[in-house]
Structure formats: C-alpha cells, structure tokens
Design goal:
single chain, 406 residues, alpha/beta
Amino acid sequence: MMQNYSVLMSVYYKEKPECLEQAIESIQGQTVPTDDFVLVCDGPLNEPLDKVIAEKQQEMGITLNVVRLAKNGGLGNALNDGIKHCKNELVARMDSDDIAYPDRCEKQLAVFNEHPEVSICSGIVEEFTTDPNTVDAKRVPPETNAEIVEFAKKRNPFNHPCVMYKKSTVEAVGSYQDFYLLEDYYLWLRMLMAGYQGYNIQEPLLHMRAGSDMYKRRAGWKYAKTQARLFKFMKEQDFIGESYMDSILPMQIIMPTVIFAGVSNITGLEILVPMGKEKYVLISEIFGAVLDFGINAIMIPRYGCIGAAIGTTLAEIVVLLVQIIFIRDMAAFFMSKISEKNILLGTFFAVISTMWMKKLCFGSFTKLLVSATVFLAVYIIVMIILKENIAFECIGILKNKMRRKE
C-alpha cells in the first residue's frame, strides 16, 4: 500500500510569484498530503519569487526541499536533477503556474494501489486563462493502456502537468532527455516501448493555466520540426508502421502556415495598423475564419485531420492575400520607383543564385526556406549595386526601426 509520494516542480525567473504561490498551496491542500516536495529553481530567480519560496519554506519545513541550479538549463534538465532528490517511488509532477484539485493525488494513489502494473498515471486537465472556475477547454486523454499505446502513435497520451509516475521506471529508460518542448512525450514513448503500462483517470485532476504564450511556443517552425523528428524516431523503433504518414502528413501540410502567419503579421501590424487601417486587418481575419470553417465542414468528414490541415493552411494564405490586396496602392507606389530593366536583372540573378539549392541534402521544406532567403538577399544586393533608391529607403526604414527598439 503506497501512501507516500514526492512532488516534483520546476520554476524559473519568468514565473509570476502569485501563480507559484497558488500552485504550491494547491499541493499543500491535498487530501493526502505529501511528505516530500522537491522544488527545483532553474537558474537564479528574482526577489518576489524567492520571497514566496522563503515563506513556504517556513510553513512546510523539511517537507519542502529547494534545489537551486546555478544556471537555467530548461525544463528537462531541471526535472532530471529534481527527480534524483525525490525520496519516494511515486512522483507527482506539478507545474509552477497550475492548480491541482484537492483530491488529485489521492485518486492517483488509488490507481497505483489497485493496479500495481501501472507506471504512469494522469487524468483530465481543465485549461483556464485567468479564473480557474471558468474552463476554456478540457484535455481528455485515453483511459486504458491499449488505448494509450494506440493514441501515442499520433499524439501525447498523457497530460504531463498532472502526471504521477514510478521513479524507478522513469530512470530505467533514461529519464527526461533533450527534445524541444516534447521531453515528456519522448519519455512516455520510451516507457511504453519498454513495456511499462499507463492509465488515465477520466476525471479532472488539474486546472492548467493556458495563456497565449503557451500557444506561441507550440506554433513555431522549430516545434513542427521536432514533431517530425519524434515521428521518425517512432518509425525507426517500429512503434509505428508505414501508416504513420497519416499522422505526419497533416503536420507537413500545415508547416508553411508559420511563414504565411509571420508575413501577415508584418503586413497587418507593421503596415496596415500604422496606416490607421485596423479594420482591414479585421476583415482579412474574418475572411480567413469563414474560409477555414467552410473548408473544414467539407474536408474533415472525408479526409479527417488532413482536411483540417489543408483548411488551416488555405485560411492563412487568404488572410495574407487579402491584406496584400489592401496595401496594393503602397506596393504600386514602391514598384513605380524601380525600372523594369533593374527588376529583370534583380530577378535573373536571384533565380540563378537559388538553382544550386536542389543539390543540398535538406528536406523539401527546408530547401524552400533557404531558397526564399537567398533569393530575397540576392535581389536586394542587386538593387543596391544598381543604386536603386528603393533599396536604400528600405534599409533606412529598417535602421530606424532597430533604433526605436533599442
């Protein structure tokens, strides 16, 4: 009968002190209290955070074990260090800005006592932005081990912020390892591949703070590239078969949206908004949303997640195109300053410079990014050599923007 458990939490200097305080207090209020709370300070903190920790140290005494790392090394590194300090076999993960249900750990302990074969256990998390009583969304993971294994072939099968696991099994597969924003998913995969079993309680265990920053971190090219690398790992380990393309294809389709969204941010926020045309940005977003809804309604029933990926990508393209249409007058003004001869010369040399890209040993999308960057750079250089005023004007604008940011 296991009743003792450790809590493992990591905090770094960007965390809000009030959020950290709420997170710790939600563990202090557990119906089955912990006798070992390991708090890893991932690098130097700040005075408000240190104050919260000092106050909690006085309240909790030796139960709170504060581990301070000399420099920030990332979540995976901090958890690897912290798990070594956990004195119990069962370890409950907790993020420094979430709020656990009072009976969260009691319910998870019951699972381990009733099912000793289980090594990982999480449950439903409820996302909120400001008020934990206002639920924005729920993350419901699969329940049984068989469902978890099947689900893991496409998505993360556990909710890491409320997971509880056996320390020995985590250490047996090498603990957390470097895998950008997917350290937990990579760990679960290795545990499942090693034969360790999981279970997910079909009840809410945690209020998870989910602001815009979380989604920004998970929307970049680097994150998409890491996901592709994870699917490749699963394929190499025979965890998934050839049908894994059903999972990775939507991700490959949606990758270009990072570029389209980035450019539309420039055209919208850096051009239209300063011109006092905010309503055009809103109109473009409405166009995109309507198109996305329409395509999803048609494509998803027939093509599933691939259809959804196509809809999202097309919607981002439409947003960008609509914004470009709205700024066409400005574009026409710029183009009128460049002679047709110089345009042809710039395009010619830019195209020639990108022809060798096909020899690079990169993926097709990486080649596209590199080619686009080289094309733009060569075109600008040619414009400068030809002493086109527009090139110098653009450089001047960039310099002014950089000075303002400094």
